[in-house]
Write a structure and sequence with these properties.
heterodimer, A: about 270 residues, alpha/beta, six-stranded mixed sheet, three-stranded antiparallel sheet, 7 helices, 9 strands, about 35% helix, about 20% strand, globular, B: about 280 residues, mainly alpha, MetI-like fold, 2 domains, 14 helices
Chain lengths: ~270, ~280
């Protein structure tokens, strides 16, 4: 009785079926869409990020490298799309995030050690558990500076080291690094790069690294994710399988040079397009 | 609203800061200045006293309008050392402190609460800005109708003026919190409440202190004005106006200077406590 006769026809657009990524995929991104000021930045963007690998994100200025990892990390809400971590949502996933600007990432009202312990405090860990984890972290990072100091009393490199320790404290499944070296001097960059590699070799944590330095991007990466200009798509995913630990010698090896050259070619092709 | 108040730099470092200080260029500059560099702050006051003395000595201003500086300073010191001036000083200080405490106790929590919910702040922003721009002294007659000519009246009007400054600064402190610190806490899984108590409250501390410092100055101004014009029988404002009416200029100047001493001391007290509590400010 209550049915409307001759109602106009509204056809629903069929929802695309969810296609899982290949085996070994950690983060599955499907149909990610993000508009900025009415213009598409990402439109129907699909990506599979492998588990226990380091993926460097590289691309032209303004293509949304940081926006991509911020959407994955839940800092920027996407307009639509789905992001799953081993099939789970972000809510059920432990992540760590290292900001470029360590000055505004650490809490200056807490001592450095309390900053590092903060995510554990949020998890409601006991004092003993926190202390044990702090001892572990301090040992694995071979910390030479006084963690009882406030962050502003430390050098830039020390502060960024503390930021990375804080991000790793809760043993995250994924570590996001948004240009972690750009505010550091060369010496500190080399030091933290080695630390990250060590941590990765110890823990195998999936890492997503945004970088504007191609050498650094390739050096640390298992995969270099090259992006196009906006609306952003994947230009190419470059595999770089050099064994770890990679050292300064790696930088002059033919395989490294080839990978770097190839990345540069793709990058230049995309910038000119 | 800037954090780098040059006056704040003059305050001695807190013990926490003294444990380890970065080697900055300033340390060398200070060390290289001649020893009389420390006397520089006294040059201005001494010059002023000399000028004052000359003006009186050569009779440029009638003695009935301007007493000699030495006598005035002696009257100030004598008065504050236990004379009737001390009583009035104490009364004014107590009223200012009461007004300030009310303003801080209501203004800081309310400001932080409003600041953490921008919509609620926007809805009262006009009221706050309007009454903040209204000279509080213009409201004295209104407050007289509400509270009568009483001690409470003076404290209430001063508290009102100070409260608006506190609420404004605390609210903006929360709203201007570094977005990245908030994001850092969120990405670590902090709930809204945890972000509020672990980040926003702390971020707002420095602007809150700026607000408290301006508020205590404002409270003192209004208390003095109220003591002058709302039938008071004590307080520095009352003392100044009484001395003026019977032309006891020495007393009047001593009372004015003591009000200055109070205002300056309160300001320094707040700068020092800010430096201790908000030890990260400007770093």
């Amino acid at each position: 009785m209550s049915e409307v006769l001759n109602a106009p026809v509204f056809a629903d657009i069929p929802v695309p079926t969810f296609k899982p990524g290949p085996a070994g995929t950690h983060i599955t991104i499907r149909g990610l869409t993000k508009y900025f000021a009415g213009w598409p930045l990402y439109e129907n963007f699909d990506l599979d990020i492998p588990k226990n690998k380091i993926v460097s994100v590289f691309g032209p200025n303004g293509c949304g490298k940081s926006t991509l990892i911020n959407m994955i990390a839940g800092l920027v809400p996407p307009d639509s799309g789905e992001i799953l971590f081993d099939g789970k949502s972000l809510k059920d996933t432990k992540i760590g995030y290292v900001f470029q600007n360590y000055r505004e990432a650490l809490f200056p009202w807490m001592r450095t050690i309390d900053n590092i312990a903060y995510p554990l405090k949020l998890e409601g860990k006991s004092k003993a558990e926190v202390d044990r984890r702090m001892a572990e972290l301090v040992a694995s990072f071979d910390v030479k500076f006084d963690l009882n100091r406030y962050p502003y009393e430390l050098s830039g490199g020390q502060q960024q080291t503390a930021s990375i320790m804080r991000a790793l404290a809760p043993k995250p499944e994924v570590l996001f690094l948004d240009e972690p070296f750009s505010a550091l001097d060369f010496e500190m960059t080399l030091f933290i790069r080695e630390k990250l590699q060590e941590v990765f070799m110890q823990t195998g944590t999936t890492m997503l690294l945004v970088s504007h330095d191609l050498e650094e991007a390739v050096y640390l990466a298992d995969q270099v994710l090259l992006l196009t200009k906006r609306p952003t798509r994947v230009a190419e995913i470059l595999h770089y399988g050099e064994a770890r630990p990679r050292t300064t010698e790696t930088l002059s090896e033919p395989s490294f040079i080839t990978a770097k050259k190839r990345s540069l070619e793709i990058f230049q092709r995309e910038v000119r397009r | 609203m800037t954090t780098n108040n040059p006056a704040a730099m003059a305050v001695p470092a807190s013990p926490a800061g003294a444990l380890w200080a970065p080697q900055t260029a300033t340390a060398e500059v200070v060390a290289n200045t001649p020893t009389w560099g420390k006397a520089l702050p006294f040059v201005g006051p001494v010059l002023l006293l000399l000028l004052w003395d000359m003006v009186v000595r050569f009779g440029l201003v009638k003695a009935i309008l301007l007493p000699p500086p030495i006598e005035t300073v002696l009257a100030l010191v004598g008065g504050l050392a236990g004379g009737p001036l001390l009583t009035d000083f104490g009364v004014t200080l107590w009223r200012t402190v009461q007004a300030f405490l009310i303003a801080a106790a209501v203004g800081v929590p309310l400001g932080i609460a409003l600041g953490s919910n921008e919509k609620s702040y926007r809805s009262v922003e006009f009221l706050i800005d309007f009454f903040r721009s209204t000279p509080s002294s213009a409201l004295i007659p209104l407050f007289m109708m509400i509270f009568g000519i009483s001690d409470i009246n003076k404290v209430a009007i001063a508290a009102f003026g100070a409260f608006l400054i506190v609420i404004f600064n605390s609210a903006y402190g929360v709203m201007n919190a570094r977005k990245q610190r908030v994001m850092a806490a969120k990405v670590m899984g902090a709930s809204r409440w945890q972000v509020f108590k672990d980040v926003l409250v702390w971020e707002s501390l420095q602007p809150t202190f700026v607000g408290l410092r301006s508020a205590v100055s404002m409270a003192l101004v209004i208390v003095i004005v109220a003591e002058m014009f709302i039938g008071a029988d004590n307080g520095l404002g009352n003392r100044i106006i009484n001395a003026q009416q019977v032309m006891r200029v020495k007393d009047m100047y001593a009372a004015i200077l003591s009000a200055g001493v109070m205002g300056y001391a309160l300001n320094v007290l707040f700068l020092v406590s800010e430096k201790r509590i908000v030890h990260w400010s400007g770093r």
